[in-house]
Specification:
Blueprint lengths: L14 H18 L3 H29 L2 H5 L11 H9 L1 H24 L3 H38 L1
């Protein structure tokens, strides 16, 4: 198949990833409808997170959708089509780290606003979003790079 077909976009993206983004997106949108400090902080955070989520869903999630096949040892020649996406991801790694710092700063802003407004719900949401960002930095992003390395080695042997 040609890389133009984007067969990898039809992979079964792990539901946990999709649900996590869907839940965070819904909470962010809801928080922007609040009054005062929470709404202001949530709008700043949404401006950063929502495009970031979309980017991850188009570039990171399809790569992670390969995990079930790769863990079974199923390597197919068309899997080579994700390597440019992984190379682009790798090249953007420093920019992503900077973007995560901006997001974390905005998360802290929401956390402070929630504490000042004595809103436990949004404080918990901010804390959970901070954990989400750490999981991406410490687990998700390294996994994408590892998948790329594994595919390059495996496809070279076939």
């Amino acid at each position: 198949m040609s890389s133009r077909t984007g067969w990898y976009r039809n992979l079964n993206i792990p539901d946990a990833l999709r649900l996590c983004h869907d839940e965070a997106r819904a909470e962010l949108v809801r928080a922007t409808t609040e009054e005062g400090r929470i709404a202001k902080a949530a709008k700043r955070l949404a401006d950063l997170c929502l495009p970031h989520f979309q980017w991850e869903e188009k570039t990171v999630f399809p790569v992670l959708g390969l995990l079930p096949e790769l863990t079974r040892g199923d390597i197919r020649p068309e899997m080579i089509e994700v390597l440019p996406m992984i190379a682009d991801f790798s090249a953007r790694h420093d920019a992503l780290a900077n973007q995560h710092q901006l997001i974390l700063s905005a998360v802290e802003g929401l956390l402070v606003a929630a504490h000042r407004e004595k809103n436990r719900e949004y404080a918990e949401f901010a804390y959970n979003l901070r954990v989400h960002e750490r999981i991406e930095d410490e687990v998700t992003y390294p996994t994408v790079l590892l998948i790329g390395r594994y595919l390059r080695q495996s496809l070279a042997m076939h």
